[in-house]
Amino acid sequence: MTVFEHLQISGLFDSHAHLAYSPDEQVKVMIRNAKAANLQAVFNMGIDIESSRKVIQQAKDSNNYAKAFIGIDPEVFEPNSDMFVGLENGEAWIEQNIKLLKDILISEKEFVTGIGETGMDFYHFEQDGSTESVKQKSKSLQEILFRKHLQLAQEFDLPLSIHSRRAEAECLKIVKEYSCKGIFHSYTGNYTTAAEILNAGWGLGVNGIVTFKKADEIRNVYKEILKHAKYTNPQDFYNQGIFFETDSPFLSPEGKRGLVNEPSNTKIIFEIFNTFIE
């Protein structure tokens, strides 16, 4: 049984994209291109209240081909992220925005496929020289926000897309406390944590990063997980807990670097991935 088996998607799909970043006319082209590449669906992520409303509208406009995930990205509490909203009054901010998110979910339940993206992100701590007190406050608020999303997913029986950059082990420890499942999207952690994620019944998201010339470390993680098994179709990978994504419009795969990424590139990522694990 795979993480998304209940959705009855047969074939390749993009498990994590951000169509809300793109103009409506460009989204229409992206969806046409995705269908032409034989993608069966696009999982379309919200990162805040505005984009969560937007992905629901895109689900309606696409006859639910672009499937809406609603959520609030953890970078809202990470200093030096473009999304940072501040640490003061953080818990009040969380309560207000989670209420808005739940109201959206209840009113648009027919068009909400999952929760996300959500999780924890410690990446900027390595770049910005934040004090220890700021780091701890940020981590605490991120965890509270993350747990609120997990509670929503559990209450409404929905899958999640987890953002866990530099916080993979911490996110895994938390999700084990809840009865829900999903994908650790854009996974770039180590083999040990990857194996634990899979053993816990969660999936790993593979995107354009694995095609980068200097990405041997993460490629080796997947080689070890799959142990050079030869698979011929996406379902074989899904059965192992491996899912493919673009993170559009970011992280274009090798050969498309410098261009806006789009869901149709899932096919390129799948094909390259299938080649290097042989």
Structural class: alpha/beta
What's the rounded overall pLDDT mean?
94
Major sheet attributes: 8 strands, parallel
Cα(first) to Cα(last) distance is: 24 Å
Widest sheet: strand ordering: 1-2-3-4-5-6-7-8
Task: Detail the topology: elements first, then pairings.
Layout: E1 14-17, H1 24-36, E2 42-45, H2 49-61, E3 66-70, H3 90-107, E4 112-119, H4 125-128, H5 132-156, E5 160-163, H6 168-175, E6 182-185, H7 191-199, E7 203-206, H8 216-226, H9 234-238, E8 242-244, H10 266-276
Parallel strand pairs: 1-2, 2-3, 3-4, 4-5, 5-6, 6-7, 7-8
List keywords for this structure.
alpha/beta, 10 helices, 8-stranded parallel β-sheet, 42% helix, 278 residues
How does this structure look, described?
The chain is of the alpha/beta class and 278 residues long. The chain is 42% helix and 13% strand. It has ten helices and eight strands. The protein has helices at residues 24-36, 49-61, 90-107, 125-128, 132-156, 168-175, 191-199, 216-226, 234-238, 266-276, and strands spanning 14-17, 42-45, 66-70, 112-119, 160-163, 182-185, 203-206, 242-244. Strands 1-2-3-4-5-6-7-8 form an eight-stranded parallel beta sheet. Helix 3 links the parallel strand 3 (66-70) and strand 4. Helix 3 (90-107) packs parallel to helix 5. 44% of the residues are buried. The mean pLDDT is 94.
